[in-house]
Amino acid sequence: MKSKKNEVAVICVGGSGRNVANSLNTHYNLKNIYRLSSNSHDIWYCFEDRNGILVGTELTGGFGCSGNPSIGEEAVRLGSNIVVENLKDFKVIILVACLGGGITTGGSIEFAKIAKKMGIKIIGIHTLPFDFEGEKRKDIAKSGLEKIRKYEYETIIFDINSLRHIIPKEIGLIDSFSIIDYSISMIVNKILKNINNKKINKYAEIINFKKIMSLASKEKIQRTKYLNNEDNFTDASIKNVNVQEIEFDYAINPQLVKNKSLCRCKFSENVDLSDKDFTGVDIRGCNLKGTNAKINPQKIKYKSLYKTNLEGIDMSGMDFTGVDVWRCNLKNTGADLTGAIRANGAITKYNRMSEIEKEHLHTNMNHPEKFSKNYRCGCIYCFNIFDFGKLKTYSHGKPDSYIYSICPFCGEDRIVGKTKNLKFDKSRLENIKINMYHDY
Asked: Could you write out the DSSP letters of every residue in 147-165?
């Protein structure tokens, strides 16, 4: 570690922490931001892999904790040597954890316990789950909050439920989470600026949560409207602008945007990107289907095509050695994945899956209206099996958007429905999870 002694570190925990870490890097370009996870793909999707603290893989297989805080606690305990090594040069830690999950709750508690024993001052920034995420997740979060307070110098609660009304109705679910990530990164940045101010007794006193959420929402709306209007767009106007998560129906120069990042952007299929240079560009999670983009996997940022949609783009003859292709859509690309990382997780075919499991996946998890009323449903996150009638739903808020199926037990949206030919039990759910989410 290159950090100088007594510097402040920001530790972001779990999948939600990954998003906050990326937001911090995008908006503020801060140093000493670390990701703590028991899920390998969370570390891979972080903006800097070297800042990832991966723990407990001998327990989780690198697949995460399935919402179980006991597993999260044990994962960090098993990785305590790694934690200590990464924390040894810091006196203050800002611990960001959206409570309710396995690593975010149990893992955060164990992490805080280790840090306190090392004499490190911990400032915790925590959110509690939305109401629609289910009682179990909320109970886990409340119990975890009581425990983690004992190890923190100050605990700051960002009550997203009471502030939901601030987010305008035209903003859907996914964008709402993006606003929360940005709001948390604004809070972290404000604390970092004031951390040596001895006149401040409690950092929560300097944070106006309502104002921060309003500013984040306003900026999101303005940025989206501006960038969705091609008349506003020139090479000069886009220079160093954050375009992450924006949908475009026109071509842009990826070399000019902030951090060269098209992360989670979506381009309409009629947009021609064939003359654009993607050298050093972050295209993880970007939808480039039908754009004729010329992608050299050896020259893109991080050598990662994680969740990138390249369907129909000619990738024949390209060298994929050392390139991460987990959940990359490479259908009809002619790609030869020899030497690729996590090649079994690429979407080129149904890997190692029986015909019955294919049918299971074709029951679209994000469209509960396609489930038969007499179906039994299963969650491939917490492995609970339940009647269709207990299924919860939540939409983006837009007329043409997906309706998300929410597990009533863990609040995750990884739901599958039982077909008449499928034996429906925990072992089958685990098999689907491995094939669908965790092919390494």
From this structure: HHGGG-SEEEEE-HHHHGG
Q: Kindly report whether the global pTM for this prediction surpasses the value 0.85.
A: no
Which of 75-79, 324-328, 369-373, 431-435 holds the top average pLDDT? 75-79
DSSP state of 329: B
Half-sphere exposure of residue 11: CA atoms within 13 angstroms, side-chain side: 30
Q: Residues 26, 259: contact at Cβ < 8 Å?
A: yes
Question: How many Å apart are CA 103 and CA 398, to the nearest integer?
Answer: 32
Here the tokens at position 103 are 């690593």
Q: Are the C-beta atoms of residues 312 and 292 closer than 8 Å to each other?
A: no
Q: Where are the domains of the chain?
A: 7-220, 239-349, 355-437
Report CA-CA distances (Å) from 373 to 251, 381, 384, 421.
44, 22, 18, 16
For the CA atoms of 202, 207, 209, 214, the dihedral, rounded to the nearest 10 degrees, stands at: 180
Residue 17, classed as helix, strand or coil, is: helix
- CA 299 to CA 405: how far, in whole Å? 38
- Please say whether the beta carbons of 70 and 48 come within 8 A: no
Q: Which residue has the tokens 């940022």?
A: 301
Report which of 140, 38, 96 is spatially closest to residue 410, judged by C-alpha positions: 140
Compute the distance between CA of residue 393 and CA of residue 415 in angstroms, rounded to an integer: 11
pLDDT band for 137, please (50, 70, 90 cuts): confident
Q: What CATH number should be reported for the domain whose range is 7-220? A: 3.40.50.1440
Q: Residue holding tokens 């909320």? A: 138
Query: What's 125's DSSP letter?
Result: E
Q: What is the pLDDT of residue 196?
A: 75
pLDDT for res 432: 72
Tell which phi-psi region holds residue 403, choosing left (phi > 0), alpha (psi between -120 and 50) or beta: beta
Tokens standing for residue 350: 């149904």
CA dist 119 → 32, 88, 92, 116, 425 (Å)? 18, 10, 9, 5, 46
Q: How far apart are CA 295 and CA 74, in angstroms?
A: 41
Compute the mean pLDDT over every residue in the chain, rounded to the nearest whole number: 82
Taking 70 as the threshold, does the pLDDT of residue 111 lie above it?
A: yes
Q: Closest Cα to residue 73, out of 107, 121, 97, 38?
A: 107
77: Cβ contacts below 8 Å, ≥ 6 apart: 56, 110
- Cβ atoms of 156 and 123 closer than 8 Å: yes
